Structures are given as C-alpha cells and as structure tokens.
Fold each of these.
Amino acid sequence: PILVLLPLFPGGCCGSTKKRTIVGGWAWAWWLVTDVQRLSLNVMTLNPMCENVETSQGVPLTVTGVAQCKIMKSSSYKHNDYNNDEADELLGTASEQFLGKSVKEIKQTILQTLEGHLRAILA
C-alpha cells in the first residue's frame, strides 16, 4: 500500500504544507497533527459490460470484457516509457482522485470510465 501524510492544520507542522508519499514502507506521524491516508496499490479486476449498444449501422451489440487496473507507483516505472517525474505525477494524480475513497468506490469510478470508452468504441 501507499501512505500519504498530510498536515491537518493550515500551514502544517512548522509551517510546512508539503504532502509526503511513502510507497510500501512506514513513516512516523505526529498524533493529532498529521493525517495518514492509505491507498491500495493492488491489482483490481473489473468486468466492463455494455448491453444493447447500437453500432453506426444500427446493429445492437452486447459486449463483456475483463480489465485489470493498478495504480502506478514511481519505483516500478524506470523503463523508457516513463521517467520518474512522469510516474511521480501520475501517482500524485491518483492520490488526488482516490484518497479517502474505499476500494469499492475506486473500482466503480474506473468501471464507469471503462464502460464509457467501450460504448464509444462499439458505436
């Protein structure tokens, strides 16, 4: 899992407003001063399904798919496709979008996005 440490008070501890992100490990947190939030980095298997979607020729289709999604972490993307800055930015975006949500809510959000893309492809 990922830990994100957020200051609870405006200005943070000692005037800091910076968020700390810890991937896999642990960290010290000030009780009643720091908000610790966790975000799962486990693989999520989703089954997007579109029923009776009409193609451009008017043919109704029902399609079921399988997708496996995972929130990217910076340390595993040192390949040519992503540099560390891009991966850190993606992890930050995922934190903004999904922190405070349950795994069920995260899956539902991703599933709705996948089903929307699937409908667009079929049409």
Amino acid sequence: MRLCVCLLLLSVVCVSADVFGGLRRAGQFVWDAAGGSRDMLRAYLDMLEANYIGADKYFHARGNYDAARRGPGGAWAAKVISDVREGWQSRGSGRGAEDTREDQEANEWGRRGGDPNRYRPQGLPSKY
C-alpha cells in the first residue's frame, strides 16, 4: 500500500507544464517501477527455489540488473526494495554488517548495468 501511495505521489510530482508529456512520463515511470518490482520478486523466488549456497549475491545483482533495465522507475523500485530489505535483514538476520555491505555492492553493480554473472557461483544450474 505504501509503495502505491509513493508511486502515485511521485507520478503527480513528475507532471510538468507539458501535461500530456508529463503524464506520459509519469505513467511510464510507474509502469517501469511495477515491472522492476516484479523483476525483484522473480529474482527472490528464484533464489529461494535454487537454494544454492553462495548464490545470494548473484540473485541480488540479477534482480537489480533486470529492474534497472526497464528505466528510471525500475531502477528506483530496485533501490527502494534493496534498501528496505537490507535494512530489515541487517537488524534481524545476525549476518552482520559485512554481509549487508556485500549485498548492497551486488545490488548497485546490477543497477549500474554490470553483468550479474560476476557473482554467479560455479555449479549454479543454468536455469538461473
């Protein structure tokens, strides 16, 4: 719900003097953000399904990469989702600050367009 409200408010802010062009851009941003959210969810579900030790950084990078390729809205959604997840995980998982830092590095790598295979562990099934 909060994401929907944020997207709606951001859409309104994005509207410029050129109403139709602004609405189109705002609509595209929202569309890209929704698609980017789906990309992030797909990467997360694939990570759970693969259940492969050492593959989490690959899935972090891949989700962010796929989302960011959609455009500014996708990149925005990937950053918000990644930051919220890492904030929540760093408080409750017990994995520590180093793991959070490495996850965020993989997230940023993917969002900048870096090849997610940089983090792909040897032996991860080609399905992923």
Amino acid sequence: RCIPLWVGARGIEFDWKYIQMSFDSNISLVHYITMAGLVWMFSRYDLPRHYRLPIAVLLGLSVYKAFLMESFVHVLLLGSWTALLIKAMVTGAISLSSLILYINLVHSN
C-alpha cells in the first residue's frame, strides 16, 4: 500500500484517496496487532475462565469486522471519510477493550 501513496501523492495532481489509503493502512495495522494479542491471550493455558467469553467475543468481532463494516456502510450509504471514521472508532474500541483485558490479566497473575 505504500507504492500508490508514494507514486500518486507526490505527483502534480493531489488526490485525497492516497491519504485515505494511508489512514486505512494504519487502522488495519492496529487491528492486526490487536488480533494477535487476542489470539495470544486466548491460547494461554493459565487463562482464567471468566476471561474466555470476553476474549472470544472480541475475537469474533475482530474476525467479522470487515464484513460487518461493509454491510453497515452499504446499508446506510455512508461516504468514504465517514466509513473510515467508523472503522477507526470500531477498531479503537476493540483495541481498547483488549488492552483493558490484557492489563487485568497481567495484574491478576
């Protein structure tokens, strides 16, 4: 995703789609790091039982986030910037929730 930003955004004609692509890439990076953390927490052998359900729900939301977001954008006919903002908010909420679970898990051990 870096090549279109480098080639397209530095040309004579500027287009906002390259900035949107860079924001989308950063949001995706945070999403993938969050998913890796959730998978790591779920696969721990010493995970307390009361953490299994919230982590499983967050993993399910992470896996189906793209489908849910595309459905939501299609049904509400949202613009590209609004869809990007909603994607950032959903990713932030999932990331913050998993961070809170991780901190509680670390402090409980």
